[in-house]
Write a structure and sequence with these properties.
The protein is an alpha+beta fold. The protein is built from 2 helices and 4 strands.
Length: 90
Amino acid sequence: MKYAIIDVGTNNVLFLIADLTDNEVTVLHRDANISALGKKMKNGILLPAAIKRTKVILNDNIQYARMFTNNIIVVGTSCSREAKNIDQIS
């Protein structure tokens, strides 16, 4: 079974596509992009430019992942969890 995992961090978006077969993981693709999502975040508000950068990266990663699998998992680290306007990324 193939999976795509996207980790949205404060500064980077990490992207992994892997195949899990018989409890063995094979990495098919790995990538990292600088999003600077948390750059100049103040009072829990993300800047519009940071949101735009991150959305572009996420859309590109999801589009690429769909060539391999529909099992796509997106997780967010502290910046994503703390941002009051994180819903603007969806």
